[in-house]
TrEMBL record:
Region feature Disordered, mapped onto this chain: 1-61
Keywords for the protein's UniProt record, in alphabetical order: Hydrolase
Annotated signal sequence range: none
A GO term, aspect molecular function: hydrolase activity
UniProt name for this protein: Class E sortase
Length: 228
């Protein structure tokens, strides 16, 4: 699970109705009169008070990833507004963390329906995803966010090309790899560089942040949640 909530002020349905008695006129004199019974108005409807829904707890700035198959335990991933492996995301990775973009060019938070994107270094710094290309279908990725652990199961592998805009759009699509398809389940894209594989075939292209052309993405789906 990044989040901001806004609320609009509304009339309070508990507010009492206005009185029917006229305000006294200043300096007015009256003569006594026989009181006449005033019929009591019968309300046509009774306002129903509806409790406002409890706001969702904001997503913590950092979540923690555990992947037993590659011996990764409670590794921090920081959320930010941006796109995968852009300047801010690369800076977080260079500082030793993994990064998770949010917004129109990013993804959703852990456990949310859509594409939860996590990127991390494979060869430099703390290299948390050194062995992630070896993950197989059925391996589990656990994400601890706040007081909940979200468990994803790896289902497939896809490659992203940083030199093809369509490939980048597919990486961050709500359904990973399927641009234009509506998401119906919570998914994860765990992404790291394919530097070794690119260099092995003589491809030494890199962008301004030293990302190689290709990324190896492990795609998973949410299969369980549990208290942290």
């Amino acid at each position: 699970m990044v989040a901001a909530a806004s609320a609009c002020a509304a009339d309070d349905p508990r507010r009492s109705g206005s009185t029917n008695a006229p305000a006294p006129a200043e300096g007015r004199t009256t003569t006594a009169a026989t009181p006449t019974a005033t019929p009591t108005a019968t309300p046509t409807s009774t306002p129903t008070e509806t409790a406002a829904p409890e706001p969702e707890a904001p997503e913590p700035r950092r979540s923690y990833v555990t992947i037993p198959a590659i011996d990764l335990v409670d590794f921090p991933v920081v959320r930010y507004r941006g796109s995968p492996d852009d300047a801010p995301g690369t800076a977080f990775q260079n500082a030793g963390e993994m990064a998770s973009p949010r917004g129109a060019r990013g993804g959703v938070g852990p456990g949310e329906v859509g594409n939860f994107i996590v990127t991390g270094h494979r060869l430099t710094g703390t290299a948390p995803l050194r062995y992630s290309p070896s993950l197989q279908p059925g391996d589990r990725i656990q994400v601890r966010s706040g007081d909940t652990v979200f468990v994803y199961e790896v289902r497939r592998t896809r490659w992203t090309s940083f030199r093809q805009p369509q490939s980048l759009r597919a990486q961050r699509a709500p359904v990973p790899g399927r641009v234009g398809e509506e998401a119906t389940e919570a998914m994860i894209t765990l992404s790291t560089c394919a530097t070794l594989e690119d260099h092995a075939v003589g491809n030494y292209w890199s962008d301004e942040f030293d990302n190689p052309e290709h990324r190896i993405d492990k795609i998973g789906v949410l299969v369980a949640t549990r208290p942290a």
